[in-house]
Amino acid sequence: MRVLGVDPGLTRCGVGVVEGVAGRPLTMLGVGVVRTPADADLGHRLVAVEQGLEQWLDEHRPECVAVERVFSQHNVRTVMGTAQASAVAILCASRRGIPVALHTPSEVKAAVTGSGRADKAQVGAMVTRLLRLDAPPKPADAADALALAICHIWRAPAQNRLQQAVALHASRTPRTPQAPHASKGRTA
Predict the structure, then answer these.
(1) Nearest CA to 102 among 82, 118, 128, 121?
(2) What is the spatial distance between Cα 117 and Cα 140, in angstroms, rounded to a whole number?
(3) Is 141 known to be catalytic?
(4) Is 41 tagged catalytic?
(5) Is 7 a catalytic residue?
(6) pLDDT (tens digit, 0 to 9) for every residue of the chain, 188 residues total?
(7) d(CA 20, CA 67)
(8) Which of 68, 107, 119, 144 is catalytic?
(9) Angstrom distance (rounded) from CA 134 to CA 166
(10) What is the pTM of this model?
């Protein structure tokens, strides 16, 4: 499985491509950051993020895109920029028919380090070890994007089995007949 991980952001949108399957050594195919100037118009920044992500999709042709799920922060301005960049990533993948998976930061940290409370340095160190890199990817947004891709590769098989089991259960569960509707013209 080849996954493009996206750590969304307007100033720095981390991107990383990882290939492999759960239980086997993984391979990093690319890592980087799509940057936009903080003083640029919002529309131009979103177009720049889109163009950068489109280049990554063209070059690496992932089977899936894993995007960090936006979570509530105290700084509303930061959340809005993250949400907007996240939407661009989802749009770019969906336009091409590429499945998109959303993972929370704590899910990613737990998958990669074993602790949902790991800090950036711990995530970077584990990404370095798991992908057999010489040094942690810089900036941290790039390492986070690789962590998202790793998380998805490891979690996807279990999530797929769970979805199949739920669908199978739903198809085997007998439906109860609906009660007839009361007539509208009741007389007393």
Answers:
(1) 82
(2) 16
(3) yes
(4) no
(5) yes
(6) 999 999 999 999 999 999 999 989 999 999 999 999 999 999 999 999 999 999 999 999 999 999 999 876 677 778 898 999 999 999 999 999 999 999 999 999 999 999 999 999 999 999 999 999 999 999 999 999 999 999 999 987 666 565 666 767 787 876 666 655 555 554 54
(7) 18
(8) 68
(9) 42
(10) 0.84
